[in-house]
Write a structure and sequence with these properties.
118 residues, mainly alpha, Methane Monooxygenase Hydroxylase, Chain G, domain 1, elongated
């Protein structure tokens, strides 16, 4: 049996990690998702250095295409779970910026002008 090209092995590794990323995103385990993304980035960088279709057989090219499609499908699923969280964070950061602008405009202690809980 012929040895599997390293780039196919790397795509398989990325595929396995992307499936784990889907699980982490579904569980809203953001720290795990970030750690997995770092692993994927390292593999992706290594893959870009030796991704050469010229040395692949037709069967290997089909396998590579199927792996890439699965990774893209996983990416879409990850985004489906992360985009709402990203929007929440954007809103939080926007409100924090607004609060800082108010504090700069009206003084650092705005709580004395209304709601003492601020």
């Amino acid at each position: 049996m012929a040895q599997m090209p390293i780039q196919i092995k790397r795509y398989e590794e990325i595929g396995a990690l992307s499936a784990q990323m889907v699980d982490a995103a579904r569980a809203q385990d953001w720290q795990r998702l970030i750690a997995l993304e770092k692993c994927v980035a390292e593999l992706r960088d290594a893959l870009m250095a030796d991704d050469d279709n010229d040395n692949l057989t037709d069967a290997e090219r089909r396998m590579k295409a199927a792996l890439i499609q699965r990774i893209l499908d996983d990416d879409a699923e990850i985004r489906r779970h992360t985009e709402p969280r990203m929007e929440q964070l954007r809103q939080f950061l926007d409100s924090a910026k607004t609060q800082r602008r108010i504090e700069r405009a009206y003084g650092a202690n705005t709580s004395r002008f209304g709601n003492p809980a601020l």
